[in-house]
Amino acid sequence: MNKRDYLSQKPKLLKQFDKSLNRVKALFVDHYGADLADNLIKDTRLEYEALIPSLPDLGGRQPFTQFVIATAWFLALYRTLQRQGRNVEEAGTWVYRMTKALLDSYPRFLHRIMGYIYFSRLFKNRLRKRALQSQTRRYAGDYVFNFVEGNGIEFDFGVDYTECGTCKFLAQQGASELAPYLCTVDDIYSKAFHWGLTRTMTLAQGHAKCDFRFKKGAKTNVPLPEFVKH
Questions:
Q1: pTM as predicted
Q2: What CATH number did the domain enclosing 174 receive?
Q3: Which domain holds residue 179?
Q4: What does residue 69 show for φ and ψ, rounded to 5 degrees?
Q5: β-pair partners for 211
Q6: Which spans in the chain are helix H?
Q7: 100-158 confidence digits (pLDDT tens)
Q8: Total structural domains in the chain?
Q9: 63: Cβ–Cβ under 8 A, 6 or more apart, which residues?
Q10: How far is CA 166 from CA 116, 173, 177, 194, in A?
C-alpha cells in the first residue's frame, strides 16, 4: 500500500489494532492496573493513528506489509511508555508478551496449518520468486532477501535478509533501538508453527544480514535477551 492506500484503509487498520489489543488487554491490566492500562491503550492507539500516514509503501504485499504495520503498533506503544519515563527494555518486554499472547489466542489447528504451508513446495517456490523480485528494490522501504536452498539435513531452506523494512522504518522514526526487541518474536512464531528456526545474526544487531534457517519440527534456536528468558 502507498500513503493514499494506508489513509483510505485507516478505519480498517484501527479496527485491526483494537481487536488485537483487546485480546491482550488483560496483560496490561494485570501489570499496570485497570486505569493505567486503559490510558496506555488509548494513548498508544492515538500514536498508531498518527503513524499510519508514515507507513512505507511495500506494494501491498503480504506478509511484509503486515510486518511494518505491526512495527508501527509496537513503536506507538514504545513512544507512549517513553512519555511515562519507561525504557526500551520495558517496551521490548511487551513486544514479546503481546505477540505470544496473540498467537496463543488462536486455535492450535491454525498453528498446524501455518506450519504445513510454510514447508510446502508451493510456498517455497513463491518465496524463491519473491526473493528475486526483492533484489530490484522497487520499494525503498521494502525487505530485500535471498532464498537459500537446504539439503534437508542441516536445514530444509533458508532466507538471508540483507535489508529489513522494519529497521528502515524505525530508523526513519528515530527509534532504531527498538528493532532488536522486535526480532525476539521470531522465537515465538517458530515455536508456534514448528519452524525449527535457527538464527545467529540480525541486521538490527548490526550484522550484515539476518540468517534464517528452517528445519521442520526441529528445536528453535534463536538467541533471546535475558528479560525474555525469565
A1: 0.93
A2: 3.90.1520
A3: 3-229
A4: -65, -45
A5: 160
A6: 3-8, 10-32, 34-51, 64-83, 88-104, 108-118, 121-134, 165-172, 179-182, 185-193, 226-229
A7: 999 999 999 999 999 999 999 999 999 999 999 999 999 999 999 999 999 999 999 99
A8: 1
A9: none
A10: 26, 11, 12, 24
